[in-house]
Structure formats: C-alpha cells, structure tokens
C-alpha cells in the first residue's frame, strides 16, 4: 500500500504543482482587481463555498447524468463489440456493409437531435439514443479493426489446436482484439461525455450540464465554475476507473507501459 502511495506521488507530483501554481495565479490576479473581471472569475474560495452550498444539487445532477451516460454508453459498448466481432469475422458481409458504415460514422450525433426528439417519447430516451449513437461507432469500428489485425501466428496456432466456434472466439479473437476494443471504448467515453453535457444544457431538468447552464443564465459564475470543476472531477474519476479496468484486463501490456 505504501509503495503504491509513493509511486502515485512520484507520478503526479508535477501535476499537483501545476494546479497549485494555477490556483495561486488565479488568486493573485483576483487580488489585483483591475487585471481580471471579478464577476466572470470569482476568487477560488468563493467557488469552493458555492460548490459546498450547492452540493445537494451537484450530487443530484451526478446521479441524473450517470443514469443517462451509463445507459447509452454501456449499450453502445455491448452492441459495438458484438457487431464488430460479427462483421470482422464475416468477410463477405464486411465488404458489402463497411462502405455504408464509413459513410454514417462521421455524422455528428447532434444532427440526429430533431429526429430523436420527434420519434422518442421523452428527453431521457432521446438523450440516451444520442449518447448511444456517439459511443457506438468508435467501439464498433475499433473492434472490426482489432479482428482484422489479429496476429497470423495466433490464427495458425488456433488452426493447429483445432479451435472453432465459441472457443476460437473467446480464446483467440477477443483477447487479441482487446487493445483495439479498449481504445475504441476510451474514445467513445469522451464522445459520450460531450453529448451528455450538450444534451443536458439544452433540454434537461437536472444533471451536471444542466447545473452549469442554469447558473450561467443568471450570470452566477462562481457556481458555473464550480459546476465545471465538479464535471472535471467526475470525468477524471471515471477515466481513472476505466484505466484501472483496462490495465487489469490487458495485464500483458503493463510491463511495456511501466517502462515507457
């Protein structure tokens, strides 16, 4: 445990120093009064106080946002992996459909907003659909790429061992494709957060994005900045959890990463 703490400090002490310098500079320019607008950029302590006073709304917004995010994102990951494996392993179908997939995947999910609102019964279901669309394509395309780039030696060994069907899929294809799948899932997570924030700022009644938009309408920038900081902390926490899962499942890549 102590070794992990020491390693963490050695890894991130530079990050901590940058944050400390940033906060000191923020406070310094606020004290000058004339160099920075105190309404747009309130003092750090005022922001911390606003976050503490609004903690109940922030926590409520967190759970509301996570409901939307996880529902759309996890569905996209599941279907993206299944669809990517199917397309990647079926050469004929892949050649027919990949041009269509490549033409649809670059379309920004926000362009589907009018149809999502018109066709789906609630804002919640429309938001989940948009998050799903935005997160699906990176996972799907990365999975297809991972299947196509499986090392030939693995395929030859599987042929020698006469692995077929489910065992061939779980013992060879999926493990060899996992680095690509996680890469796509990581990209999809970023897209999902962007879509979530945009959706909540324009149609939600609660959520982390709604919190920021609500207080910006009243020019209450200490709460706006507090909401932005809270968003950043949540995103960082989820990214760290995602990275921990990735490192545990891709345990054979740890040595190279630690040496880099």
List strands and helices in order, with pairings.
Elements: H1 2-32, H2 44-53, H3 55-89, H4 91-104, H5 113-119, H6 123-148, H7 152-160, H8 165-203, H9 208-217, H10 221-249, H11 254-259
Helix pairs in contact: 2-10, 3-6, 3-8, 3-9, 5-6, 6-8, 8-9, 8-10, 9-10
General description of the model:
The protein is mainly alpha-helical. Helices cover 83% and strands 0% of the residues. Helix 2 crosses helix 10, helix 5 (113-119) packs across helix 6 (123-148) and helix 6 runs antiparallel to helix 8. It is globular, with a radius of gyration of 23 Å.
Low-confidence stretches are: none
Run of helices and strands: HHHHHHHHHHH
Shape, principal axes of CA atoms: globular
Radius of gyration: 23 Å
Range of helix content: over 70%
Q: What's the average pLDDT?
A: 86
Q: Provide the β-strand percentage band.
A: under 5%
H/I helix tally? 11
Count the beta strands.
Answer: 0
What kind of sheet is the major sheet?
A: none
Q: How far apart are the first and last residues' alpha carbons, in Å?
A: 23 Å
């Amino acid at each position: 445990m102590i070794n992990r703490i020491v390693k963490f400090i050695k890894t991130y002490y530079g990050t901590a120093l940058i944050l400390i310098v940033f906060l000191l500079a923020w406070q310094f320019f606020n004290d000058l009064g004339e160099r920075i607008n105190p309404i747009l950029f309130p003092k750090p302590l005022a922001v911390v106080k606003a976050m503490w006073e609004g903690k109940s709304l922030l926590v409520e917004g967190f759970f509301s946002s996570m409901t939307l995010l996880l529902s759309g994102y996890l569905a996209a990951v599941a279907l993206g992996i299944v669809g990517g494996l199917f397309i990647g392993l079926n050469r004929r179908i892949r050649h027919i459909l990949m041009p269509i997939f490549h033409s649809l995947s670059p379309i920004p999910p926000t362009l589907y907003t009018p149809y999502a609102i018109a066709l789906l019964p609630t804002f919640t279901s429309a938001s989940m659909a948009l998050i799903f669309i935005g997160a699906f394509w990176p996972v799907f395309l990365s999975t297809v790429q991972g299947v196509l780039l499986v090392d030939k030696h693995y395929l030859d060994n599987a042929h020698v061992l006469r692995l077929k069907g489910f065992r061939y899929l779980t013992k060879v294809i999926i493990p060899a494709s996992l680095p690509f799948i996680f890469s796509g899932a990581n990209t999809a997570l970023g897209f999902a957060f962007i879509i979530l924030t945009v959706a909540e700022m324009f149609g939600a009644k609660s959520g982390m994005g709604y919190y920021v938009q609500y207080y910006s309408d009243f020019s209450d920038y200490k709460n706006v900045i507090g909401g932005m900081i809270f968003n950043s902390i949540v995103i960082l926490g989820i990214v760290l959890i995602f990275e921990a899962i990735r490192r545990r499942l891709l345990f054979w890549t740890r040595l190279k990463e630690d040496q880099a």
